[in-house]
Amino acid sequence: MAKIKKIGWDNLSLKEMLEKSEQEFSETHHYCGITELKLKENDPLRYERVFSKLKATMVSSREVALHISASPVVREVGELCFSLYTPEGDSLVLSTGIIVHVHTMSDAIKFMIRNDYETKVGIKDKDIFCNNDVDIGDVHTADVQTLVPIFFEGELVGWAGGVTHEVEIGSIDPASVPVTPINRYGDGLYICAEKIGENDEVRRDYQIRCERNLRHTTYWTLDEKTRIAGCHIIRDMVVTLIKQEGIDYYKVFCREVIEEGRQSFMERVKERLFPGKYRSAAFFDVPFKGKPIASIAAKDTLMHAPMTVSVDNEGNLGVSLDGANKWGYFPYNCPISAMQGGFWVLITQMLAYDGKVNDGSYFATKQFYPPGSWSNPQNLQSSTASSWLFLMPAFTNLDRSLSRALFARGFREEIKVGYGCTDGMQCGGIGQYGQPFSMINFEVAASGMGARGIMDGLDCAYAMWNPESDAGDVEVWETAHPLIYIGRRITSGSGGAGKYRGGNGYHSVWMVWNTNELEIYNLGAGKVFDNAGIFGGYPGATGYHIFANNTNMKELIEKKSELPHAELDPNNSDILRLVKGDITVIDEGALFPAPFKEYDIYANFYYAGPGYGDPIERDPKLVENDLNNDMTLLRIGELVYGVAGVKNNGKFIIDLGKTKKLRKTIKEKRRSNSIPTKDWMKAEREKIINKELPEVVRDMYRESMELSSEWSKEFIEFWDLPDEFSF
Amino acid sequence: MKRTASVFAIDAGGTMTDTIVIDENGGFTIGKASSSPKDESIAFTNSVKEALSFWNTDPESIFPSLVGGVYSGTAMLNRLLEKRGPKVGLLVSAGMEDYLLMERAIQTYAGYHYADRLHAVTHVHNEPIIPKQLIFGITERFDQFGKEVIPLYEHDVKQAIEGLLEENVEAICVNFLFSYINSQHEEEVESIIFSELNRISKELPVYLSSKIHPVRGDFPRLNSLLLAAYAAEPSRKHLMKIKDVTKKMGAKFELQIMAAHGGTLDIGSSNLYQTVASGPIGGMVGALYLSKHLGINNILCSDVGGTSFDVGLITSGEYSINSEPEVSRYKLNLPMVAIDSIGAGTGTIIKVDPINNRIDLGPESAGAEPGPICYDMGGMDPSITDCDVILGLLNPDYFLGGEIKLNVEKAKNMFKEKVSDKIGLDVYEAAAGIVDLLESKMRDTLRALILAKGFFPSDYVLLSYGGGGPLHCANYSLGIDFADILVPTWAAAFSAYGCACSDYTERADHSVELVIPPDAGNDMKLEIGDSINKIWDDLKKKIVTEYERSGYYEEAINFRHYVRMKYTGQLDSLEVMTPISHIGDAQDIDKIIDGFENIYKKMYASGARFPEAGYQITEVVNTGVVETKKPVLYKHDLKGAKPPKEAFKGKRQVYWKGSWVNANIYEMDLLEPGNEIKGLSIIEAPATTYVVPPDCETFLNEYLIFQLIRR
User: What's the whole-model pTM score?
Assistant: First the structure.
């Protein structure tokens, strides 16, 4: 039998290369055993020149490809990212965009290598691979990856990877971030690291499968073209670069640049973060009790994300989610690849934003996600279609811990306390063009940013998963779904109060138009806060669902009566005040698919960022400005910020003297309301011993204790409980 | 020699105001003066006077014989950035009152470089140019098809007007959703406002988004609308002042203003807002002019300024139009010649990262004040100009004709302390390496622009201009196989020159939603054709009205017809010039489709085509052009290859590829067409320096354009 030529370097197979690289790292703690940055030292300027060339290629491939897409999610809000990998699948340079995926694609490449694709599937020049399987390497089914091998003179020299967020993935619910899947079989169309094309052409049988398993394929098809076009630009540029610089240089360069990324990252950690252990926790409610799903899933759950961030003197950064509770029958489970993606995207925004942004940072950190938990289910059956929903609140922990560590080192201007976590409204049915449609409105890519250490958080302009956030134009979104905007307003006072407040979220009020066949659903936190402030700052507000069916909107419009353009104050809802019909208010984040028809109303909230510092230390002039721009509510100004003044001609004018007095009163009240921590803990301990906690809370802690003996031990010690205590 | 000047143009940039005056034989003189943003007429006068001083004459003697003049300035942009506009009231569709506080998030990092786009804590909103109290929501709605969903609530309008009048606004803007499809509500509002104003005998300008620029994209359209009311209108007075100066100098022509779309506009035009960002456009227009006259179809334009490197493509004798550009952190609906820009120029600051000793270039720039270290005006940060002078590439005694004496020692000492010592290299090695790094970034930008679109460099001529273009082009073009490399002797004022090459152009756009399914029959195509014809005619009327204001009638106007189209479902459209001005049959629609397919293939490679989805026409565009008098591209007789003796200035030591070598120094203005100069040579002019490397030679052609030839 003729021997198949190995496509790796030095007559190795890819699998042998990967094993070698991993062994070298575990033995030397340097990427591929590279201890000295020889290329950089010998000719630093040539080295920078080559890196700058690759970086320019990544950015321009994204810019060009962006324009091919049909999906507002890609074109309008930029949900697209490209990266270049070594043959073993480690990223050396990436574009901007949803950089959360840089490491997920790395996992997908490694999966193919480990599963002997080289010999069993074949990896050839001009092949096209596709993946959206979270268990292989992804965040959720909606994020679809294209991977193209790059060959030079018969050897594989790397991989170009591109990922876009799809608006339709053929899941149990229309659109792409479904709420009802309870296991993998509701997640949508899975492409499991599959070869979908050869000779630069996508296979027709694969296309047919997609066409028959998705509600519509225009976006899917054009986004695929988008990713392939971008990968081909990268492939061509890399080959040109190798011709110019020489293959030997490139081979050393592509690894050295990752090792340099690793070393720089550790230096950055050393410079910016004060050593120590930083702990925090985040929660998320899963209100599935009584919902129309299988009985095993129809229960309420509270998800638990206790995070420990450790920093040492050498620049080692570790993250552990020890204590996380179990995976469940809901779509929010997050395999490791997704968790690493979440970690990665925040790190690149707070620590590794310049220099060599690549997988070097990944090698410089240690992460632990407990097996069996929602953060590492190790169960292929689990649904992960909406992993983002818990991943986002869980990683607000990281922002808070890094903020504290930055503060301790004196880098106040680098602090970002967290962010609001939301999902976009999703809908499907028959659209305004009379055809089946589904859509996720990604204006959610512009929620509230947490407060910064020296100023307020950004209002309505931040998405943790994509630093190049954007909400897009109303006139573009209205072409994508049969809902028209009757308002898109800042949610007053939603930003977590603080000396610097969290960025406000906003909300859109839609009226169903041009269809009588529509379902809308959504997900998010509702019963619990999905973020928290620091140093006395409040959490950002979450939201609620309010919608009206069988309305009198038509009549109101005909009579030119007042319409509900906004929900500026939840205590005084315009929808409740003005609209007659079947009105539903749900104080839960998750909304299961609900039917709508023309003239029905639906309002969606994009959540706000948490605050920094004590609100009564906020400059009263800033509160005045907020009040005059409807950025906060009068009663919040008074109760929370302790600001007094008068409203004159519709304008609020602060009274500094009265404000001072009011703030003094607030302090006194706080003092009189306080009790010693010791006493408070004693009372709480009683509740724990007597198990006087809500059922979901007891279940949550029980699962955490069952999964981790160490966390259990610490819990028992902290609350001074009997050794045998369990929930 | 008695000269008869023909045209002149001025490019008032952020730091310098450049003037070029061109005589009827194509001879030119260049003047530079420090910009005077508060009153641009000062820099205007100084710059013109300086230019004419080289001809030993003055404006009063020359201006009466000029037949045209074009101005490109930054006053309008500065007004916007410094929030120095009038008190404007704004009416929007109810529920959209927070437009300016929310913005599009894209504006919170617009113009940032790669690292800061990731570094989220650096993102900030723009300060709203209209306070919340002056923005009123009006209940009304049309849908995307132009169907009325909610009628106009007149009582909302009356209440809003009352509120705005109480606040003494100086203008009112109206931006309703989908007004580009159906402008009825905006027009009704306008008539209510006018009748209210009549009642109280008051006059106020009213701006409707459906009139200013009826194109999809509610937020960028709003920005364009506000730009028109807040910045363009007040700038009209300011531009009139400059026009008055030209009149005092004896001008008989009407001063024209350079617009972002590559044409010029009359100061009275209602599209004056389209002149907001025209500086870098001038170079592209100049290149297009050269392309037509020299028969070069494809040009890659590269402009090296103090702060940025601007590049753009002319392909098959056309540049492309970006319909939603970002200008100074504002996303606008505005047709603008497509230009890419990176923060790499001669003033770019060199930084060394204290953590890993990595060298980073820019994006900050030393600017004109205090300028690079070598200016000796207080600048402390090493920049590219400092490297150039350290390496001997720049003549310290002849910078801006000797106006600024460069302090080489100071530049060297500070560069050593702040850069070369830190990265462990010798001063000269480091300076040369850094210039090389900058040029390599420029090269990547050029290559990406061409290759990413699937074009071949060998089909393009590289044109290099801007004050720093001739200095760096030999190296930034290295390794890219261009058909030719051209450096005009007037490179330093090429953008101003380009302004003088543009035609008086009124452009009108209108968004539509015309779908051509893949199986569209002839009847359907004809129906679509009728819709397009109707809009072309409407837009023509609009254009004719604009021209009548400045005394031109329909017969003098050349109309060019365009559509913007895409595959159905896609979001981005491409502009297609149609070969016809009236659609007579179904085949005419096929011709438009072919035009689109050709452009698409060029832009995104063949595999990204999607004809199965059908096509959608999203905008119908008509452009009226009145040709203006342009500079003559005079063909000189070629003299001998040997440069005249007086042009040779001697030799100078230059650090080149690791050693000090002797370079021949020439005076650019004394060279003659036909002269050939071998590298290593440095050709100096007051406003620029042209480097010919050892492995190159240059030939000054009959049009006074250098060709750089690699041996």
Answer: 0.91
